Every structure is written in structure tokens, then in C-alpha cells.
Amino acid sequence: MSTSNQAEAAVAHTAHPATSSYISSGFANKMGWGSRPALLIIDVCTAYWTSGSPLDISANPAAAASPDSMRRLLAAARASKVPVIWSTVSYTHPYMADAGLFYKKAKVLTVWQKGDARGLDAYMEGLEPAEGDTVIVKKYASAFFGTTLASELQVLGVDTLVICGVSTSGCVRASTLDAMQHGFRPMVVGAACGDRTPQIHESNLFDLNAKYADVVEEEEAVERLKAGW
Questions:
Q1: Sign of the C-alpha dihedral, residues 48, 152, 155, 215?
Q2: CA angle, 201 as apex, 199 and 202 as ends, to 5°?
Q3: Which of these is catalytic: 45, 164, 171, 193?
């Protein structure tokens, strides 16, 4: 298969009016899998699938279905003892000072403030860390920024990150970019990520696939996870 055809195949499920322009310019090449994957589940909590929550994305049907895809990825990783990493958010300062300038832009971050009575930071049923998993606590969008994630992955010997979670345009995007910049191959499972609208979700997947990651189908990711190391 020619380089151009490989690029076209790589973006087949992230179609966009600019696809041909990106490919002809040299974007959207396939990065490919390494041999030691880990599963990174980003910020999954009830805030994103609870009516009335300021973060609710369930009006988007694809986003509403994404937790089931995440559960299938998790089951595949557990079956082959592939490392599972969770990122979560926590703020402890009473005035959200530990959220820095991020809080200036996003007052919704109080969902993760210690003591918040809404309880929207709770894990989803069937999407909870187990003994032996790694839990990364963060305060900004990327699971790498200000955390030990990169060094922990290096110690484990991970070379590829299967990435899922929320939101596609926010913490998934930021973590994917940082994964690539730290030398880990990001494989973003589009069906296992969610955002408020199809347009936001799909545009971000297209851009990630064009520049920073491979956006892959759930079936491919499940197969790779089940294969283990």
C-alpha cells in the first residue's frame, strides 16, 4: 500500500472536508503500535453522564454510549494483565487556588473540589480502579502535567497508550499530545471518548489523528489489549 493510501486508510473513520488537503500536505501518517501497551482512562466520573450536571455530555448519543466501550477496553486489559492507569481530578483549596488560571476559564472545575456536595466526582459503575491499578491525581487538563505519569510508565516499560475517557476536546486531547511528546505511542479509541456534540468530538479526533496520534477502532484496541505483552 502506498504512503498516500495508508494515510487515507488511517483517516477513514475521521472523515473531514480537509482530509485530502491534510494527506497531500504530509499529515495523517500512521504511527503504529508498539509491543507494550497500557490502558489510560481519563477523568471518567458521573459528572459527565448525570442530568443537570454542568459537565453532562449524554445529549450526544455517541458520548452516552462511550462508557460501554470503555468497559470493553477495561475488560480486555484486565484479561491479559495489561497495566491500567486512571486519571482523576482533585482540588483541596477552599477558593480553588490549586486550580490556578484554569479556574479563571472553567468554573465548572468545582465538581472536583473537596467537599462538593453534589458528589459528581464519583466513579461510574463498572469503571472503577482495582487493586494494582495506577491512579494519577491531576489538577490540569493533561494527565502528564504536574504528575508522575511519565516516570511511572517508563518504569513499567510501557511504549503505547490506549487512550479513552472524557472529554475528547479537553483532557483526552491534552493527555494525548503529552503522551506523544513523552515518547509513548497514543492510540485514541474514538468510540470510547466523549464530548458535548458530535462536531466537537469528531473535529478533535480528526486533528489528533492528523498530527499527534492514531485514532483507532474499538475492535482493534481490544484485540491488541487482549494480546498482552
A1: positive
A2: 65
A3: 171
Radius of gyration of the chain (CA): 17
As beta bridge partners, residue 134 has 85
Q: Which residues pair with 88 in a beta bridge?
A: 137
The question of whether 193 is a catalytic residue gets the answer no
Starting at the edge strand that comes first in sequence, how are the strands of the sheet with 185-194 ordered?
134-138, 84-89, 37-42, 160-166, 185-194, 214-216
3-state secondary structure 95-149: CCHHHCCHHHHCHHHHHHECCCCCCCCCCECCECCCCCCEEEEECCCCCCCCCCH
> What whole-number distance in Å separates Cα of residue 212 and Cα of residue 31?
9
Going residue by residue through the chain, which has 229 residues, state the pLDDT in tens, using 9 for 90 and above: 444 444 444 454 566 777 788 888 888 899 999 999 999 999 999 999 999 999 999 999 999 999 999 999 999 999 999 999 999 999 999 999 999 999 999 999 999 999 999 999 999 999 999 999 999 999 999 999 999 999 999 999 999 999 999 999 999 999 999 999 999 999 999 999 999 999 999 999 999 999 999 999 999 999 999 999 9
The pTM (predicted TM-score) of the whole model is 0.92
DSSP states of 5-21: HHHHHHTTTS--TTHHH
